[in-house]
Design goal:
The protein is about 30% helix and about 25% strand. The chain is built from 11 helices and 15 strands.
Length: about 325
């Protein structure tokens, strides 16, 4: 089998290697990988910023789609020939998160999926819908599920307003899934072109945060001074204060990213006096992954893929992610 791994931290060290195929145990499945989608977490893992103590070498990435080609003698969930996607936290099947459930995640600390075949426990895959291509299906396990979890846990419904920061994978999924629920969406970006594309995908308003640095005021203006019901917070340190300002009394902030830093000061008085809920979102469990896949199919959503790269060009795919030159998801096609 072929895999891309990092023997030491740094994108320049990402190397193509040949490995012996792993054996399939009684409860394991072998998957021929067809496509992999990138998450910002993967970039942080490769560069050592996510976990500097991560044991190396590591095959990165967590989100893949493919075909089951072999199953163990006790496997019941899938059969050879089934189309599947991977589960980010394969020990978190349902219910509340626990440390033992959420610490075992693909692409670090567990081996990842940036390979042409993988062997996983049967609990670590769910069926992919025939309505989506392998490229499209590979975008759902982290980005789609994280967006779904934010909307679910914060109770977004018809007539509400959601603000999504930026146009990355989670934000675009949140836009598409929120619109499917009948909510209106405001999108922020520094690119007018990306804002226009987000509006074409269903956003009601776009705010350029370079030309309108006080984008929270812009969100208030577009909601009649009330604020939004939910902010999908991906920025962290550099955006959290404005997220609080943009949120209506009784609204929520779903914290799903820390692109501008993890440490920030919170004005607790505004959170308290406005009864704002701050909800951390750590992707989601397997049952929720099956739920979001069903919702995507039911709503006729087509995951937005900005760029596709060949397996051998994965390093260029990560460089694009680092530069933020994409809208939606970046996909590495392993086997067309």
């Amino acid at each position: 089998m072929r895999a891309l791994e990092i023997p030491s931290f740094g994108l320049d060290h990402l190397a193509l290697v040949e490995r012996p195929s792993a054996p399939v145990g009684p409860l394991d499945v072998r998957v021929r990988v067809r496509a992999i989608s990138l998450n910002y977490r993967d970039w942080l893992m490769i560069t050592g910023q996510y976990n500097p103590r991560q044991p190396l070498p590591l095959v990165p990435c967590s989100d893949a789609s493919g075909e089951v080609v072999e199953v163990g003698s006790l496997v019941t969930r899938v059969r050879p020939g089934d189309r599947v996607v991977t589960v980010f936290a394969p020990r978190w099947l349902s219910g509340e998160p626990r440390r033992d459930r959420i610490r075992h995640t693909l692409g670090g600390p567990a081996p990842g999926v940036l390979a042409d075949e993988i062997v996983l426990h049967e609990d670590g895959v769910v069926r992919a819908p025939a309505e989506l291509s392998f490229d499209e299906a590979a975008t759902i396990p982290c980005a789609g599920l994280t967006a779904w979890s934010a909307l679910e846990q914060c109770g977004v419904t018809t007539g509400q307003t959601v603000l999504v920061q930026g146009t990355g994978g989670v934000s675009i999924f949140a836009l598409q899934l929120a619109r499917a629920r009948g909510a209106e969406v405001i999108v922020t970006s520094r690119s007018d072109d990306k804002l226009a594309r987000a509006i074409a995908l269903g956003a009601r308003h776009g705010i350029n945060y370079q030309t309108t640095p006080d984008w929270a005021a812009g969100a208030l203006e577009r909601t009649g001074g009330e604020g939004v019901h939910l902010v999908v917070e991906v920025g962290g340190k550099g955006t959290f204060a404005q997220s609080i300002k943009a949120t209506r009394p009784g609204g929520s902030i779903a914290v799903i990213g820390i692109l501008s830093g993890a440490a920030t000061e919170i004005v607790l008085s505004r959170v308290l006096m406005s009864n704002i809920r701050v909800q951390g979102i750590f992707v989601g469990h397997r049952d929720a992954l099956e739920a979001v896949i069903a919702a995507v199919v039911s709503a006729g959503i087509r995951p937005e893929i900005s760029h596709r790269f060949a397996f051998e060009d994965a390093r260029a795919a990560f460089s694009l992610m680092r530069e933020g030159g994409h809208l939606g998801k970046i996909v590495v096609t392993v086997q067309p």
